[in-house]
Design brief:
The longest helix is centred in the middle third of the chain and has 16 residues. About 0% of the residues have low confidence. With about 280 residues, the chain is of the alpha/beta class. A 7-stranded mixed beta sheet has the order 5-2-1-6-7-9-8, sandwiched between helices. Strands 3-4 form a two-stranded antiparallel ribbon. α2 links the parallel β1 and β2. The protein is built from 11 helices and 9 strands. α3 crosses α6 and α4 packs across α6.
Length: about 280
């Protein structure tokens, strides 16, 4: 299964670089910053807990779990109009839709529109400086007239994800990540893919009002120390910075390369583990 929502930090293309480091575990798979859920959908654990602070993201996960056919229907209706518009009118249409997200109830319609706008927007960025806005068409649409998210293969994937979420033993939360980590016990495995703190300034928001600073990192460090005391194995992906390497120097650290479209360059990221 593939991810079904475009999300910053999606690890789909990099799973093969660190999946070999995932230990065997008999308990629950726990992911407190689930994002697009690439690791969850790759491992397909029997027992799982996922969480994210972003209310829209969790609304999307719950909607895919409970109402996949309704989402597909909304996608198809959107596609009938969107595909035939000129490039200029595509942008106008998406800007109009995106401007209404804030006042739309957290339901299937909002989840569907949110997914669609993320796919249609350049770099998937529709939340900037705590406000919804539409920056322009994604390059695949603008240059190549491609709409893979409106194709049958994508619809089939949404249905498969829904089946997995319903047929396994899982829980979906929209809480502070510390509350979810408190549920972890010996035998469980925690995969942490938190927002990165780096020197450059991102142009998008993960969550409204969220502050990514040293205080955030220190809190994260204290939380993984608590996991150690409960004999919980954990793996974390992180930015390759001096600050990160110094703070987590007592743990096993590996590097892997990723390509970032925003800077059009390869950079190192880190895998940090409390086991060898």
């Amino acid at each position: 299964m593939k991810t079904f929502v475009r999300w910053q930090g999606n690890k789909s293309k990099h799973l093969n670089k660190f999946i070999e480091y995932i230990p065997e575990f008999s308990g629950t798979y726990i992911e407190p910053f689930v994002g697009s859920g690439a690791m969850l959908l790759k491992l397909q654990p029997e027992k799982w807990i996922i969480n994210d602070l972003n209310k829209d993201l969790i609304n999307i996960w719950k909607s895919v779990k409970e109402h996949p056919q309704e989402i597909i229907k909304i996608f198809k209706e959107f596609g009938k109009k969107f595909k035939h518009l000129s490039k200029e009118n595509k942008v106008k249409y998406c800007r109009e839709i995106t401007s209404k997200i804030e006042k739309t109830p957290y339901d299937i319609n909002r989840a569907s529109i949110y997914i669609l706008m993320k796919y249609c927007a350049y770099m998937g960025d529709i939340l900037k400086n705590d406000d919804f806005s539409y920056p322009g068409l994604d390059m695949n649409i603008y240059l190549n007239n491609r709409y893979f998210f409106l194709e049958q293969n994508n619809y089939n994937n949404i249905i498969e994800v829904s089946k997995f979420l319903n047929n396994s033993n899982g829980q979906i939360y929209n809480k502070d990540y510390t509350i979810v980590l408190d549920k972890a016990k010996s035998g469980d495995f925690v995969f942490l893919d938190p927002p990165y703190i780096e020197s450059h300034n991102y142009q998008f928001n993960y969550n409204k009002g969220e502050e990514l600073n040293e205080k955030f990192l220190k809190k994260l460090y204290k939380q993984v120390k608590k996991l150690n005391k409960r004999d919980v194995k954990w793996m974390m992906t992180q930015a390759d910075t001096k600050q990160i390497k110094e703070m987590f120097k007592e743990y096993t650290i590996k590097k892997f390369k990723v390509y970032r479209r925003s800077s059009k360059s390869y950079v190192n990221e880190l895998i940090i583990m409390n086991y060898h």
